[in-house]
Design a protein that fits this description.
Blueprint lengths: L5 H15 L8 H15 L4 H11 L4 H10 L10 H21 L4 E7 L5 H13 L7 E8 L2 H9 L1 E2 L9 H7 E4 L2 E4 L1 H4 L2 E5 L5 H5 L4 E6 L8 H14 E9 L5 H4 L4 E5 L2 E5 L6
Bound molecules: S-adenosylmethionine (SAM).
């Protein structure tokens, strides 16, 4: 972008960081500039300073910041992403927690998909629950799925996907849990009804503090966009939001242990998993 000074861009990058926790590095500047240009064109603005002023001083309802955020987030996802991790969840952790809860007469499961993008992850979890629990209809199940990106959430709620999103879905699940029409794959209602989507900003302390009582938290491939400080703040809050004995799953390049040492770790099925100890608050 020609009329933008590096000082102004720094102010914007800092604003994005403070509001979302996402830290853009210098190598991403071209990516950001292109998206800012798109917003400025939509608003008929020529000067970047004018756009910056709008974001900083006149965007009272956060409307323009939301439009920009929707363009800046990276939404890459697909069903059954990181299949081995999903297997460990399904065959080990889920069975352990559900058996324990059933024995105690508490047949309820709460799962949080934090940074759910276009919905493939929470729907995958709903499919796994339907497959793994003998009597899924007798369980009180709630999968809460949240993202900062309003466009991604709209797509998630529609639950309609192209072939590339379902490429890793085992064929028998594809016919069981999707309706196929015109080359598109629509998630069936029995799965959709298990997931509740919500707009959430994971770097907003007030929104996150209210989250409690989860048996499982998935926050995969999101923390890579955060810096160390916002990453730690969020993972510390995940610890509080988990039930004792509950598990947390991050992306394969993200390690819970390096961020928060209160989590316990163990090896199941050849994989390391992190959980909150039974007697922890
Ligand atoms: C790469 S996707 C990961 C989707 C899914 N968890 C997976 O692993 O396939 C990262 C998502 O995190 C969301 N995100 C980034 N910052 C966020 C924030 N501060 N609050 C909520 N969601 C955020 C983005 O909008 C994006 O949809």
């Amino acid at each position: 972008m020609s009329n933008i000074t590096s000082g102004e861009l720094e102010v914007l990058i800092d604003l994005i960081y403070r509001k979302t926790g996402i830290r853009f590095e210098e190598k991403k500047l071209y990516f950001i500039s292109k998206r800012i240009e798109k917003r400025m064109n939509a608003l008929g603005m020529e000067k970047f300073s004018e756009y910056l002023r709008l974001l900083r001083f006149s965007d009272r309802d956060n409307h323009e910041f939301q439009q920009l955020t929707d363009l800046l987030t990276i939404n890459e996802t697909y069903f059954f992403r990181d299949f081995p991790q999903m297997e460990v969840f399904a065959e080990q952790c889920l069975l352990e927690v559900s058996e324990k809860k059933a024995k105690a007469g508490r047949r309820s499961l709460r799962i949080w998909s934090a940074g759910c993008s276009t919905g493939e992850e929470p729907y995958t979890l709903a499919i796994i629950l339907s497959e793994m629990l003998d009597d899924v209809s007798e369980w009180d199940i709630k999968i809460t799925a949240g993202d900062i990106d309003t466009n991604a959430l709209e797509k998630a709620k529609r639950g309609v996907y192209e072939i590339r999103s379902v490429r890793d879905v085992p064929p028998e699940y594809l016919s069981k849990y999707f309706k196929v029409s015109g080359g598109l794959y629509m998630v069936k209602d029995q799965i959709r009804n298990m997931v509740q989507f919500e707009h959430v900003n994971l770097s907003d302390k007030n929104q996150i503090r209210q989250k409690m009582g989860f048996d499982f938290i998935f926050c995969r491939n999101l923390l890579i966009y955060f810096d160390d400080i916002s990453r730690k703040r969020l993972v510390d809050q995940f610890y509080v939001a988990l039930n004792p004995g509950g598990y947390i799953f991050l992306g394969s390049s993200e390690s819970v242990g390096r961020i928060n040492t209160a989590f316990k770790l163990k090896k199941v099925g050849g994989h390391i998993v992190y959980y909150k100890g039974e007697n922890q608050l």
